[in-house]
Amino acid sequence: MKLLLMLAFAHIRGRLRQMTVAGLGVALGVGFSIAMAALMQGSQQDFVRQLVDAMPHVEVLDELRRPAPQPAEQVFAAAEFFGLRPVDDQRGIRNPAAVEAALRTWVPGQIAPALRIQAVARFSGREAGVVLYGVLPRQEAQVSSIARDFVVGSFSELAAGGNNVIMGRALADKLGAALGSSVSLVTGSGQARDFRIVGLFHTGARSRDEGEVYVALKGAQTLSGRPNAINTIRIRLDDPARSQEVAARAEIQIGQKAVSWEEANQAVLEALTIRNVIMYTVVAAIMLVAGFGIFNIVSTITHEKARDIAILKSLGFPEADMRRLFLLEGLVIGAVGSLLGWITGYGLCLVLVSIPIKLEELGGATRLPLAWSLLHYVLATGFALMAAGIAGYLPARRAARLNPVDIIRGAT
């Protein structure tokens, strides 16, 4: 094996310029693959983090996973019913205090009850449809990411008493209102009440900044005419990865629908999976292109060293050694190119992460999110060595089949 390595390096030194070009091709391929993987995975992690932070990890709703059977179905064996009038039943989570107490005994995280209703915000002749949340300020601040995104004020302002409201700065600008303005909130039932703006938040998500308002839970219950009612329990877990497990257990225990953040964003997560497949396909394609350079170099060496192959085989070297010799040459180019690619990829990542990007929605300058992972280097090297091995094996197999007698005689 040592002799084969010496011969491989001798062949490489003989065509050092071409070998250098092939190695640089591998290095660039590995480097750009590392940088691209770091950028794509970093952007994905940043997107998922923002997605997780923007909503409760688990939300218990006043809904059933499957519709309850109609009472008439239990009495009459009819195939279909017409003209049934449903019982007028105000929706909401039954026995909310008992449900919340039961969840607190085992849920590894923070819990906050809320009443969510549709409303219209009116100010100075302008109006906008909003989702109104009635919350307990101290508990909501522990489960909501909005608590970190206040421009002025905080959730604690709602606990000061009175008819106070917190809304997005974008919604206030849309209505022409400001801190201290009195805004009228009207529900679908026609109930209306004036609230004073005591806080403004800015999350960067337009749907929230223009479509959500928060008041004290008692104020929302009075406005909707539903005293002591809640229709959602919002849960923020210590470990978001356990959201599906917690949601399933909560749904079995309570009997009402519990939705994890993964279930609520299933389509988005599936799209991210497809994007990962595309990313690794592109990485493999880059390495395949780099492999063509190695194939050309090793094929040229095989053609030029035909007489050397004949001499080696006549001295007793078997075909397997000939295959190993030229395969080693391809792998050496791939290994050296991969090491240079590590340096190139690391440098590209440093350059990318240092580029400032100004995004007004995120509050000023930010930087590209990159994921620093050894796995990217290992995968890029694996693809490179695989491409180098295949590129080296094809001419190596051809070299091993050469007949030394034909070569020495000058036969074609």
Question: Can you give a write-up of this model?
Answer:
It comes from Paracoccus benzoatiresistens. Residues 24-250 form the MacB-like periplasmic core domain. It is a multi-pass membrane protein. This protein is of the alpha+beta class and 412 residues long. The chain has 2 domains: 2-52 and 268-409, no CATH class; 64-73 and 89-256, no CATH class. It contains 15 helices and 12 strands. The strands form 2 sheets. It has a 6-stranded mixed β-barrel, surrounded by 4 helices. Strands 11-12 form a two-stranded antiparallel sheet. The chain starts with a helix and ends with a helix.
What's the SSE blueprint?
Layout: H1 2-14, H2 16-53, E1 58-61, H3 71-75, H4 96-104, E2 109-123, E3 126-135, H5 137-143, E4 150-152, E5 164-168, H6 169-175, E6 182-187, E7 192-201, H7 206-209, E8 212-216, H8 217-224, E9 232-237, H9 243-254, E10 258-260, H10 261-264, H11 266-304, H12 306-314, H13 319-353, E11 356-359, E12 364-367, H14 374-400, H15 404-409
Parallel strand pairs: 3-8, 5-7
Antiparallel strand pairs: 1-9, 1-10, 2-3, 2-6, 2-9, 4-7, 5-8, 6-7, 11-12
Helix pairs in contact: 1-13, 2-11, 2-13, 2-14, 11-13, 11-14, 13-14
